[in-house]
């Protein structure tokens, strides 16, 4: 048995004292979010396998001994603190990948790759990237191009390509869109930096390839992983985290607003650990179907009058459910 939800629902359902908005960002270990630029040994930005906070990971007994308000789920037979899983959809596709995709494009542009002309503006660059993305998917006969967003990448929905703020995909891009973009960025970066000796570009290739490879491994494997599959998924996630950490440091030293380290990177570190011990495919814990269900409820509610929406939405949903069950019978 496992509990799956996004980070906000995880915090609210289990009454967690330590979560992503606190200085102590993790309920599973002692990692912290530094409040200034001084280095701290327990910072979550250290993604090494033997990071100091790795020795503070808690099991169910340690959680019960330290928790001020134990989770109500303790009343459920068989529940363990370790079974509160992390949702890969929100952590990867709607989390670290939203910063990863535009950051990779930004580095390629700043390092002199991917230019048509020296006077190409950032907006034209992003528009050309959008066109090439669909063309590459069609040429390689990947049906994933069907899930690409119809809108093009712009400065508005890609965050800043200047020095004002970190670049990040906007909220209009759904998880399915970003999932395709992760694959395409890995393909394009590897194609452009195939024979380079530049350290930054080699790190960029490792960072993008490892995330796409981890995604492919999780999609192709079963719900119960073999020891080899679990080790490979864990290794790919660790390679991505470490290369992102080094790229973030390089960008910070060069005043480039890219590859921002977030608490979600730390939670992916826990996923890389958990997959080795449990051998459960991380995609078992994603909430694609749950989000789809909420979307269906939203469509029903949008067609109801505002004064009776709470009652009519439930009634219409029950009518639709009865029709579906009648077809299944």
Describe the structure.
It is a single chain. This protein is an all-alpha fold. The chain has three domains: 77 residues, no CATH class; 198 residues, no CATH class; 41 residues, no CATH class. Helix content is 53%, strand content 0%. The protein is built from ten helices and no strands. Helix 3 runs parallel beside helix 5 and helix 6 runs antiparallel to helix 7. It is globular and about 60 Å long. The two termini are 29 Å apart. The model has no long low-confidence stretch (mean pLDDT 86).
Helix content: 40-55%
Q: Helix/strand-derived class?
A: mainly alpha
Number of domains: 3
The separation of the N and C termini measures: 29 Å
User: How many strands in all?
Assistant: 0
What percentage of the residues does DSSP assign to strands (E)? under 5%
Main sheet attributes: strand count, strand direction, barrel closure:
none
Mean pLDDT: 86
List keywords for this structure.
single chain; 329 residues; mainly alpha; 3 domains; 0% strand; globular
Short recap of the structure:
With 329 residues, this protein is mainly α. It contains ten helices and no strands. The protein has three domains: 7-83, no CATH class; 88-285, no CATH class; 288-328, no CATH class.
